[in-house]
Amino acid sequence: MSEPVLEIHDLRKSFGALKATDGVSLELRPGQIHALIGPNGAGKSTLIHQIAGSLKADSGTIRFLGRDIGGLDMAARARLGLARSFQISSLAQEFSALRNVMLAVQARQGSSFRFFRQVTDDKTLTEPAMAMLERVGLATRAHVPAAELSHGERRQLEIAIALALSPRAFLFDEPMAGMGPEGSKRLTSFLDELRHQAPMLLVEHDMDAVFALADRVSVLVYGRIIASGTVDEIRSDPDVRRAYLGETA
Ligand SMILES: Nc1ncnc2c1ncn2[C@@H]1O[C@H](COP(=O)(O)OP(=O)(O)OP(=O)(O)O)[C@@H](O)[C@H]1O
């Protein structure tokens, strides 16, 4: 079996007496969608923050592409290809959709944001940025400011930005939140396709989406993983049903 892209071992994080992450270990393998589910306050976002680098773990290791990234800041992890999206919006609201993606393309190319104004017509930025917008179905809205896009369109734009960074793994925190049933369906099939580009750690409350997408599901309760397995294993696990899935399984 291929090596894990992301490997978390015995991660711990407390806020005062509260153990928000209490010895979490998990792996993300190539081509995989690994869903992380659990009740409100279980510690899902806290875990994503520690992986992305916006929050420092108290102890434990995080390996990405075979390298210990625990000492790297968020920007350095992003440069290695760890793409995080959704709960914190990365959009520059006053810029068009196209400009938002161009900024991401430029960041990946390593040039300074200072020169952005002078390169708005630079084909090395506009062409890949437009290609990303086409891929997420937003090409016709390229020149609309981010602030004027609908909720669903902003989600599509966030994915285009994540794609522009050539990610080696996605960290998605509740992508379905606020989407209507139609939007969720479309986003589900898009994420399904996206797994071929890079594997995905997916925090999601929408169980239809989780059950449709996940190769593996880990259930977090009070900072601990109480079960990890395939969708079928998780749906039939009595502890999980009791702790979380009771009414939806
Ligand atoms: N910066 C912080 N300071 C103190 N406590 C925090 C902090 N961040 C999170 N917590 C607490 O840690 C626990 C886990 O929170 P977290 O947001 O990670 O849960 P979650 O599973 O993502 O919840 P939800 O599904 O509602 O988003 C909660 O009890 C929360 O109140």
UniProtKB/TrEMBL annotation:
Q: Which residues form the ABC transporter domain?
A: 6-247
One Pfam family hit: ABC_tran
CDD domains per the UniProt record, alphabetical = ABC_Mj1267_LivG_branched (cd03219)
Q: Which SUPFAM superfamilies match?
A: P-loop containing nucleoside triphosphate hydrolases
The cross-references to SMART domains, in alphabetical order and at most eight, read:
AAA (SM00382)
Query: Which cellular component, as a GO term, is one annotated location?
Result: plasma membrane
Keyword check for Acetylation: no
Report the coiled-coil segments: none
Protein name (database record): ABC transporter ATP-binding protein
